Amino acid sequence: MNSIILRLIVQRLGVMLLTLVIVSFTVFAAAQMLPGDVAEILLGQAATPEAVAALREAMGLDQPALVRYVQWLAGMTQGDFGLSYVTRESIADLIAGRLQNTLRLAAITTLFSVPLALSLGILAALYQGTKFDRFVSTITVTVISVPEFMVATIAVLIFAVYLKWLPALSYANEITSLWQMLKTFAMPVITLTFVISAQMIRMSRAAVIDTINTPYCEMALLKGASRKRVVLVHALPNALGPIANAVALSLSYLLGGVIIVETIFNYPGVAKLMVDAVATRDLPLIQSCAMIFCFGYLMLIMLADIISILANPKLRT
Amino acid sequence: MTDKRPTNWAAGDDRMVEDAIRRGATRRDLLHMLMAGGVATLTAGTILGRATAAVAATPVSGGMIKVAGATSSTADTLDPAKASNSTDYSRICSIYNRLTFLDGDGSVQMELADSVLSDDAKTWTVTLKPGVTFHSGKSLTAQDVVYSLMRHLDESVGSKVNSIAAQMESITAEGDSVVKIVLASPNADLPIILALHHFMIVADGTTDFSMPDGTGAFKVEKFEPGVTSIMVKNENYFKDSGPHLDGFEFFGIRDEPARVNALLSGDVHVASALKPQSLRLVESADNVTTVQTAAGNYTNMNMRLDMSPGDKADFVEGMKYLINREQIEKSVMRGLAVVANDQPVPPASKYFNADLKPRAFDPEKAKSLFEKAGVLGQSIPVICSDAASSSVDMATVIQQAGSTIGMQLDVQRVPADGYWSNYWLKAPIHFGNINPRPTPDILFSLLYAKTAKWNESQFLNDKFDSMLIEARGLLDEAKRTEIYGEMQAMVSNEAGTAIPAWLSGVDAMSSKVNGLEANPLGGLMGYAFAEHIWLEQ
Amino acid sequence: MTTLTKAIAHKSGYHINLVGLSSAIVILFWAIVALFAPLLTPYPVGEIVDWDYFGPSSSAFWLGTDYLGRDVFSRILMGARFTVGISLAAVTLACFIGVTLGMVAAVIGGMFDQVLSRFLDAFNSIPSKLFGLVVVAAVGSSIPVLILTLTAIYAPGSYRFARALAVNINTMDFVTVARARGEGTVYLIREEILPNILGPVLADFGLRFVFIVLLLSGLSFLGLGVLPPNADWGALVKENISGLPFAAPAVIYPSVAIASLTIAVNMLIDNLPKKIRDRED
Questions:
Q1: Which pairs with CB-CB distance under 8 Å and at least 24 residues apart come from B375-380?
Q2: Other beta carbons within 10 Å of A129
Q3: In sequence order, what E strands does B297-362 have?
Q4: Closest CB to A153 among B225, B254, B257
Q5: Which residues sit opposite B410 in a β-bridge?
């Protein structure tokens, strides 16, 4: 059993690596296609043709794209992401702090939203067709119908402007206590929970209900098992695959999708960094940010895949 | 919701009331005076309260404040030569000093310089103030000034004011405290040019601007581009008048409603560059005050004269008639604007050509001009972006007017990110946004001269260029005014740049923050607020 | 509630309850509005008709005026074209492509499945708003570009979802039996897989529709999206958001419009006739 799982993980890691290479190539190619010459943008108003040519050479931009791609890929495998075109700082340094912020916000949101969403979804399935189920379904649909920036702005108006309970901005220089940290993160976490929970609730509910309708669960029901028992013992393990997938997809939003939350709460995460990079045509930075998002996403879905395979023995081929 | 500030009440009126208070007027006298001016009692009370507070309070020391600017990205810089937006200006104004600066009335004052003198407007002698030291303890010498100014001439630095600095033919140190500047041709405005933010004085030899040394009121404690900056008080500042604060944090919140909310919730003490539509909310809050800068900034529509359809003079003229300037002033800017006449010298300038009236909104005339140019019936793309403030709204106002006469304008809103490097100056018809500059010479040299890198409409006119150089060296004010007046008429009629209105900026702050006054160079006291403001304890 | 939702029988044999029916009416309403919007608007969308801004509802301006003094009612009617049209086109394309590929990959399996899955994973891993930003920076913004971008963003997710469901079904006995019978891929997909995953796929369609409507509004937050003077509903909310503290109609009604459409779509799917929704075996 253990060796099967081990082999599975190794195999998945290999696949992930392969995907990352595909991604790196796509990302590199896409970044090259952005209009606007980097050297010209960097020099701005002082862009004389000679200065542009000199800068292009100094930055190695005169080499063929394929050579630059291989150099970039080789650098990355050694943990060297290169230098930012704009700030001339090491990209690893630029990203490190931002990534920490992004992960912190993602982790807190996950801790909060995943248990909430899954229990609501499973409970709704358990009590399918009851008032509770209807209530949960209606609320989730209503909640996701409100644009993210509206949720954020309403939250700020209520909790920061009128009640003055929470700060309107989430970037504090010195967080000294747990209480302060909770207060600082409360608003973005509330907003993001609104945004990502709905999908998890709906999908976990649908997956569980779907498995209840399979013959073996119906059989168990016919045999007299309680609905609660059927859901928790028979349906849930089989619904785990789709649920894990839905959770992975929702959580991947927390890496690159949070740009609006980062903007409104002035939270310096990686998404904002990448938007800046697109604006300034800082290609190495764009590529590195994109690679980070892809890596995070692939990790999440790999975990989801492994969970669904472990949950459904028939898939272990 | 009914609390609207009368739009005819200007900063000058505030000053008048303050003067009256200084002279010892009683509250009843003042109310009487305000009522005579047609100001409703309720609002009069507000103005009075504001003025009284401004006079009564004496600066107190101490306190940290947070200031939210309108922009911020990883391209943020502390290098004065590369500073390009209000956030950069606000930061560098606190770290460094200029040789001269412009006060609230727009007149030149000496800062690091003791005097800036010339007999012929060509050879200038700058004498430095004694006893000024950098944060590092090093004394300010003429060599620092030479280095700081010479940087702008070095192409590899990428200075934003390279074209203005280019007129300085030689910059040499004469001893420790005298700098001699020889210009290519006479320019009587050099003391004003030296007040531009880019001409901040940095320490000799500085190439790394991540934690720079300066003579300014504050030292850099932390600087993360695109995130935040923290400045702390310079205890050895050479001016006695400040700074009052222990320090301040400056960061950009690009989303305007978020900026307003951060101010209302007390997360920041100052929020700069508010939209006119936010005033209703901000002014209904009781712990917030606003400062309005005189109209000088403008958002313009540029039709490149070297590209179709701007190469047809009738099209360009037609577009200038198609602009409903009153609607832009009233609806887009909510009265925080003055209707303009397609030339960049603001009404507050002594060189303003008052005879040059703004073109009236005349769609029929525009139509006949478009017919003459043969562009009617074509779909013409107009590029606008949130990057150029209010340009999307102005574009829709013009588009709507066009649709009534069968002129189809295809308004394309493009992302704010990258707008200045990808669309501005490049697209055939696009919007720009120009910060106030103190003299016609700077405005024309930067934006209309043949060699100007920011010649937005590719307006190339030899006569204009020679007039520019002539006026530059004139010490005869009457003659100079006449030439500048004529030049204003030239760009108004011939350049491809339409300037619908001069816009006022509005900064809002917690009522505990005092000492922030309007300045013609821009919002936040011409961005030099840090050393002047203080926090009520 | 249960009496309200009591099934209404139709001649065709399909049963739809009251919630489903009223949802369908709401969707139909917006579809008609979208089609005939230019005939219905009392004022041109771009015209400033009121000197005041964030004006209240009045007989002249039914839903008040926006931040410039334009008629909100007209703007919402025209906005329906973009919100309904773009979102529906994109979600249909995305789900069609995603679900078809997902089922094919699940049935064929092997190398095909591996390569396609990896490729679409790679694609899906790029955050949607940032992807939109890059696309618009590269090729500019127009309605076909918006639809294709939204499709590209949501098709891989739909693929993943459908494939996960189909893989589960694929291991079931009745599929193995059919395969042993010698049925082809098309038959397996159409007769065995699709009917068994239709319920969740439709639920996913509804959610994805909501996401696309919201992503459109998110793109407008970043300055992309429908071009002026028109605006989709999300953009209307965004441009009038500073009216929120005053509860200005200009910000309330577009939000209500978004909510009514997205809720109706999801309610309709949740209450679809059993005959469509559930597999019959």
A1: B375/B309, B375/B312, B375/B315, B375/B407, B376/B406, B376/B407, B377/B406, B377/B408, B378/B309, B378/B408, B379/B408, B379/B409, B379/B410, B380/B309, B380/B407, B380/B408, B380/B409, B380/B410, B380/B429
A2: 10
A3: 297-303, 337-339
A4: B257
A5: B381
pLDDT tens digit at each of 281 positions of chain C: 344 334 444 444 456 688 889 999 999 999 999 999 888 889 888 888 888 888 888 888 889 899 888 999 999 999 998 888 899 899 999 999 999 999 999 888 888 888 888 888 777 777 777 788 778 777 777 788 889 989 988 898 889 888 888 888 888 888 888 888 888 888 888 888 888 888 878 878 887 888 888 888 777 766 677 887 888 888 898 888 888 888 888 989 998 898 888 888 878 877 776 555 444 33
Interchain contact, C54 vs B392, CB within 8 Å:
no
Report the alpha-carbon distance of residue C203 to residue C165 in Å, rounded: 13
Using CB atoms, list chains with 3+ pairs below 8 Å to chain C: A, B
Predicted model pTM: 0.82
- CB contact under 8 Å between A171 and B162, yes or no, is no
For chain C, the straight-line distance linking the first and the last C-alpha, in angstroms and rounded, comes to 30
Tell me what ipTM this predicted complex has.
Answer: 0.81
B313 with B306: CB under 8 angstroms?
no
Confirm or reject contact between C26 and chain A (CB < 8 A): no
φ, ψ at B59 (rounded to 5°): -55, 135
Using the structure block, give the residue that is written with the tokens 């591996």. Answer: C114
Which chain B residues have a beta carbon less than 8 Å from that of A42? 158
Residue A18 C-alpha from the chain's centroid: 20
State the pairing for strand pair B168-174/B178-183: antiparallel
C-beta of residue C116 within 8 angstroms of C-beta of residue C162? no
Contact A290 C126 (CB under 8 A): yes
Rounded Cα–Cα distance for residues C76 and B84 (Å)? 38
Residue B506 tokens, joined = 């509005």
Question: From CA A91, how far away is CA C258, in angstroms rounded?
Answer: 41
Question: What is the CB neighbour count within 10 angstroms for residue B130?
Answer: 11
For chain C, list the strands marked E by DSSP.
Answer: 8-9, 15-16
Q: Are A210 and C201 in contact (CB under 8 A)?
A: no
Contacts 24+ apart (CB under 8 A), B18-27: B18/B51, B18/B54, B18/B55, B21/B51, B21/B52, B21/B55, B22/B55
Nearest to A276 among B74, B84, B267 (CB): B74
